[in-house]
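Handout, section 4.2: multi-component inputs.
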Amino acid sequence: MATQLRLSVNGTRQTVNVDPDTPLLFVLRNELKLTGPKMGCGMAQCGACAVLLDGKEIRTCITPVSGVEGKQITTIEGLPALWAQEKGLSAAAGQGTLHPVQQAWIDEQVPQCGYCQSGMMMVAVQLLSKNPNPSVDQIKDAFTNAPPSPHLCRCGTYSAIIDAVQRAAQAMRGGAL
Amino acid sequence: MTYKIERRGTPAFSAKISRRGFVKTGGALFVSLALPLRLATRALVAENSNSIDPTLPESWLEIHSDNTIVARTGRTETGVGITGYYPQTIAEELNVRPEAITLIMGDTDRTPDGGYSAGFLNGMTNVRKVAAYTYQALVGLAATHMGVPVSSLSVTDGVVTGGGKKITYGELVQGQHLELKIPMKGALPRPDPTGEVGMTSMDGLTVTGDPPMKAPKDFKVIGTSFPAGHIPDKVTGKTKWSCDVTLPGMLHARMVRPATMGSTLVSVGTFDKKQFPTAEVVRKENLLAVVSPNEWEVVQAAQSVGDSTKWTEWAGLPGSENVTKAIRAHKWVKASESKGKAGETKSALESAAKKISATYEQGYVRHAPIGPFVAVADVNSDGNVMVWTHSAQSQGLRARIAYVLSVPVEKVVVRWMDHAGQYGRTTFGGDGAEADAAILSKLTGKPVRVQWTLPEDLAWSSVSPAWVSDMTASVDRNGQIVAMHSAHYAPHMEDPRPLGALLAGMPSATSKPDAWVATEWPYDKIVNRLEEAYGMPNLAGDSAYGGLRGNIMRTPGQRQQNFALEGFINEAAATAGADPIEYRLAHTTNERLINLLRATAEAANWESRPSPHHSARRSGSTAVTGRGACIMIRSNAYWVGIAEVSLVPNTGSLKVTNFTIGCEPGKIINPRQLDRCMKSGVVMGLSEALKEEVTFDNSKVTSTDWSRYKILTMSEIPQIKVVQLSRDDKGFGGGSEAANALVPPAVAAALFDATGVRARRIPLTPKYVNSLLKA
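Output:
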């Protein structure tokens, strides 16, 4: 039965009226029109639907919306605002900027089809928040071995992702590229 | 005005520019297609009323008074960077910045040419010629406007300079409505059950004539790493994907598929209407779906219906472990295609002093997109059909949907949007959720969005067929190959029938199950060679829905044939006690291949010696290493792959540590995009070499999630080194596709180098490698 739930998505309070068991993915995409997260396997095996929940990656295809009330949800649409907040930029200044991970994804021309990349960027943001200078092995580990499953890319962009994570790391550390 | 250039007295090309009128604000030059007279009839225009009218402006290119340019193509971004190198190519011939160009792709009512997106060379030649014609028209306009002869004009970034004057393209068209017509041939596809893949043509329209085009030495934009235009919106979430389409009154649908690949419906299951009040069951014959305006409701109700629906039993598949046996059991008659010298090869083999032979096997693999297929269709009561989807062959899909619904093709519009990469699955315009969506929309009278699930996609989509290759060669006393016979046997690989139509018992068209020789022969010193390709129907092809519907997939046919050919060349090299790269060099005089082999071997620090390595062993708990090589020629591009592997024999777990890939595709258009395609192609090739196989029992596919259809993960990628050779004198070659096919033969050769064990089947799973090591 539909219930009113309060969500905090990309820094904005949202009220939705849905069955509390609805997967968060459907709520983000169909109710809030945040279409960055993608429907992949539907069983937490691929990572296409990943978002950050209080800074940690979750798979929205298996997460009931009722479980995320009161927590901060971040999708790729919210990464610029997240970065602006971290850097203490004004809302106006934040609007024109991209998260360094997004910028690195553009600079390294990472996406081929791009379908998995929203989820991939979530892993990158989480990894760089804990480890500002990850090695190649640490990057591979983060994208492969963190539960519940590896993040899969069928186009095979893995080496570009590694390059982009290292580029973003450098930018976030304030280093020249 | 009429604009015409004649070169050396011969009308090498002709394009007419005319002024349709003056406009108060803005102004533009519209470039459209001049059809051959017999095609440019009212009938054709009427037939294609829902596609862009090729006799009217705005079809290919628009030059606007603000110096912006709109270019249109029916080809689409499949992830290989078309949104980078199409603007580059157009910009090069127009002498503008590629940033000035906006690309409109794939919509059947808004783009002119059709064709399939894998047809990069053909599609790019089209836009290049269009730009070249337009450039000639623009400088002609400028010459008239400036009173300066064409020969003294030059153009940089859209600014025409000459005789001390300058004018921009935008200023040239300011206040005018100009039209340029260019010649073309061909036609957009229509349904044709007797046609090659169920339609009249695959290629769409082709621009003809021979407009002056730049020599590669003069290129300024081609050869640079212009970024792909689709990327920024994808990393910010702005891209509207085909899965993002919503329409007023739209129903979400989930399909309920048969219990087996051949089951028919006995009784439709139920769901709790109180719990899911907006859900409805929709059925046509064996096509069963649940629809609702609410996606979550439809997911749950479809689960309930699926659990309680009864289907007949069926068991007509051979089981994936018996694939080779099933292919062998087919009553083979004659090859679909042969190349080479049959008589000379057979007699050379019969009289050979020494003969070697081997059989290579490959299982079924599939495209396996990360996003299961999705489509939205809106079939109006007047019979007009709109489809939003992500086909790589929009015009072909349009024809196919028209055939399924038995409506004239002009009633159908297909809009293309991005979706997960699919690697050739929709090249024939089939095998998606479009037919499901169109049939359900027709039945419900509402727009319907059909989202396939991963298990459904991995069980019911078309597959890249299994393969058996028998290789025989004779060698002289120096080990040099004198004659070679390749015979390749495979189920159907061009069956684009949409699943929805098959289940619903509606019309769908396929092609004959013919195979073809995909190999471009690299060994010109092997004069006596015979290559044969034998095709057979789909496995379980006579069952209700066509069994395992075979389809093309990245580097189709040649990927499979190259595994056999290059594996066999490696065997012959080992028999001769020769270094595998030296052995290849000894069998070809092709300068491009020789250059690339040497460059790639050097980049990989290749040590010249025979395989296996002197310390190769097949047991032990410490690691052994090895390296292997292979080559390929495809679409005017030359390829070399060198794999280095490490494995602990007692575990059978093979790790590819390094892969060096070399490519010489003539003139490289965009080194960065090529680099991406080479590296990612290696990743897909490794996935195919090490992990991928569609498994099935006697009744259904069993590899229906990512734990059972395994693909490569990031931790498994090797260090990948890329070698690119670009040259100005060989035209353009296809660089975006073939890299995957270079991996399996090289990895199998490296395994042999490390262990002395020859793998003649992929995937090289630990279980299979173990069985080889222990044999």
